Amino acid sequence: MESFIDQIKAKAKKEKKTIVLPEPDDKRTLYAADAILKEGIANIILVGDEQDIASGEKWLEIDLSGAKIVNPKKTDLLDKYVNVLYEARKEKGMTEEKAKETLLNDKLTFGVTMVKANDADGMVAGACHATSDTLRPALQILRTAPGVKLVSGFFLVVVPDPTLGDNGVFIFADSGLNQDPTSDQLADIAQSSAKSFQGLIGDHPEVAMLSHSTKGSAKHALVDKVVEAVRIAHERYPNLDVDGELQLDAAVVPEVAKIKAPGSSVAGHANVLIFPNLDAGNIGYKLVQRLGKAQAYGPMLQGIAKPVNDLSRGCSWEDIVGVVALTAVQCQIS
């Protein structure tokens, strides 16, 4: 049976997109670029010095001849990108001189500006940068998608047991960005995550709002926050299949759901898990990944006008390949 990520790669190949990788100084990026080009998943732009990339290519014994290399210090496109960045940020005090200086010294901003200029469809970074370094230029230059209040992060998690989630596939949110979302924000994260699930996986999203309590089994302000989030989600997004508050076992195990949450439309078969805060979401995905031998791709970002996605600094080159494939599919549906 074809794996989940192989299905995503197949989708990406059908309508090949161009993805910027602005971290070619990291060998994982170069290994990933080689694999992406060999498999035909996406067109690749590497932002960096040609000689440095060629040296890495030779040392790693890989083939990057199919990649486009753009050196900010030599490209004829610099003046164009200076204008794009200046126009995007002039209301915040950006000058043309500052735009040029930034583009020459910040590869992530350069990559996002390429996306803004429609010279690339999306960007993947974060193997050697913090999430804030990836997110900041994306929000400043691309900004949020129409109608979106909140940018959030999710992981696509594939567990070994296909009886759980959607053939083993889950979205975990927010697992990478918003530290302590309000009830209102949790409702928006649930909606965005359901849309991401529908777009990437193509199946019906069933959303569980997670807590340490199930249907009133515990009393606490943290439980109240999740209960209120469910109420807001039902009111604001009436077509969203969401329920809570649910403990994790009640959300994903049918036998437990029958005992703890009888009558719930979601309990026992949820495939989109909304965590009450970033502590829970981040710890949760890493527990499943490291102890449960799950595959975890992300943090993917949702709500930005064009696809820009982050990587965990602990990622492997295979993880980068997966996130690029997912980003390419996001580009197709955005």
Notable traits:
11 strands; Rossmann fold; alpha/beta; 2 domains; 13 helices; 5-stranded parallel beta sheet; 334 residues
Shape: globular
How much helix, percentage-wise, in residues?
40-55%
Lateral strand order in the biggest sheet: 8-7-9-6-5-10
* CATH class designation of the largest domain: Alpha Beta
Number of helices: 13
Low-pLDDT sequence parts: none
Count of extended strands: 11
Amino- and carboxy-terminal Cα gap: 28 Å
Largest sheet: 6 strands, mixed
Mean pLDDT: 92
Describe this structure in words.
The protein has 334 residues and is α/β, with parallel strands linked by helices. Helix content is 47%, strand content 15%. It has two domains: 168 residues, Rossmann fold (3-Layer(aba) Sandwich); 139 residues, Isocitrate/Isopropylmalate dehydrogenase-like (Rossmann fold, 3-Layer(aba) Sandwich). The strands form two sheets. The protein has a six-stranded mixed β-sheet, sandwiched between helices. The protein has a five-stranded parallel β-sheet with strand order 3-2-1-4-11, sandwiched between helices. Strand 1, helix 2 and strand 2 form a beta-alpha-beta unit. Helix 1 packs across helix 13, helix 4 packs across helix 5 and helix 6 packs parallel to helix 7. The model has no long low-confidence stretch (mean pLDDT 92).
